[in-house]
Design goal:
single chain, seven-stranded mixed sheet, alpha/beta, 33% helix, 8 helices, four-stranded antiparallel sheet, Rossmann fold, 251 residues
Length: 251
C-alpha cells in the first residue's frame, strides 16, 4: 500500500470534518457541476463516472439530482464510507474499487462524463504516472463526452511555495475544530501533513501524511489534448463558485 492509499484509508472516517457542513457541501458542489454540465449540453440523463469518488462528496450530490452515477476509488475505506453515505441519502450509486491509472481494468464501458475532483490528479508523483492517469480517464469518456477535474492553483502556489495552508476554524457542538496542512516542498513535489484538531471538552489531534506533485495548468492541458480531447478550457473559482480551478475537456 502506497502513502496516498494509506492517507485516504486513514482519513476516510474523518474526511467530512474538513467541511463546515459536509452535507451542505454535497448539495452545493453538485449544483455547481450540474450548471457546468448543462453549459456543455448535458442533461441529467448523462451517465457519470466519478473516478476519484472518495467518501462520495460529488457522486452523492449528483445522484441526488437524478444523474446515473458510478463511483470508483482505490481506497477501500473511502469506498465503504461512500456506500454507507449513499445509502443514508437514499441514492443509487454503483461503486467499484479502481485505480484511475487503469480504469479499463474495472470498466469496459464508456461514460458521457468522467470527473476527478478535489485535487486528485496531483497525487500522480511523476509525469509518466500523470500521463497514464489522464489517458486512462479520457479512455473512459465517450466520443462527444466530457471530462472535468479540479486541482489546486499550482501556477500561483509554485511562485512562493508556501509552507502551510490557511487554517479552517469551524464551530461544533462541543467546541471548535481547526484543520490545516503543512507543506514541505522538494522542487515541484511536496509532502503534506493534514492536521485536524478538536478543541472541545477534551483536546484531540489527528495527523495524516501524503505526497503531491504540483501540476501546472499548461502541463495538464497538453496531456488532455495528447489523449484525444478536442477542446480544453479552464474555469476559475470566481467563475464557477467551486473552491478550486476546474479543467473541462471535450472529447
Amino acid at each position: 500500500m502506497d502513502i496516498v492509499q494509506q492517507f485516504y484509508n486513514n482519513l476516510a472516517g474523518q474526511y467530512d470534518r474538513l467541511f463546515r457542513d459536509w452535507n451542505a457541501s454535497v448539495s452545493e458542489q453538485a449544483a455547481i457541476l450540474d450548471r457546468i454540465f448543462a453549459c456543455y449540453g448535458f442533461d441529467r440523463t448523462a451517465h457519470i463516472l466519478d473516478c476519484a469518488c472518495g467518501i462520495g462528496t460529488q457522486a452523492i450530490g449528483l445522484a441526488a439530482l437524478g444523474f446515473p452515477v458510478t463511483g470508483s476509488d482505490f481506497s477501500d475505506a473511502a469506498l465503504a464510507q461512500a456506500k454507507e453515505r449513499a445509502a443514508k441519502h437514499g441514492v443509487p450509486i454503483r461503486f467499484a474499487h479502481a485505480d484511475f491509472r487503469v480504469l479499463e481494468h474495472a470498466f469496459s464501458e464508456q461514460f458521457e462524463i468522467v470527473i476527478a475532483m478535489d485535487n486528485a490528479l496531483p497525487h500522480m508523483l511523476t509525469k509518466a504516472d500523470l500521463e497514464k492517469a489522464v489517458c486512462s480517464m479520457i479512455g473512459r469518456v465517450r466520443k462527444g463526452g466530457m471530462f472535468a477535474a479540479s486541482i489546486r492553483d499550482y501556477d500561483v502556489l509554485l511562485q512562493d511555495k508556501p509552507p502551510y495552508s490557511p487554517p479552517y476554524i469551524h464551530q461544533t457542538a462541543d467546541g471548535r475544530r481547526v484543520s490545516f496542512q503543512t507543506w514541505n516542498w522538494n522542487d515541484e513535489n511536496y509532502h503534506l501533513i493534514q492536521y485536524i484538531i478538536e478543541d472541545g471538552e477534551a483536546l484531540a489531534v489527528s495527523k495524516f501524511e501524503c505526497e503531491y506533485r504540483a501540476v501546472r495548468r499548461a502541463e495538464l492541458t497538453a496531456l488532455l489534448y495528447a489523449a484525444g480531447c478536442r477542446n480544453v478550457t479552464w474555469k476559475m473559482p470566481e467563475d464557477t463558485g467551486f473552491y478550486q480551478p476546474i479543467v473541462i475537456a471535450e472529447k
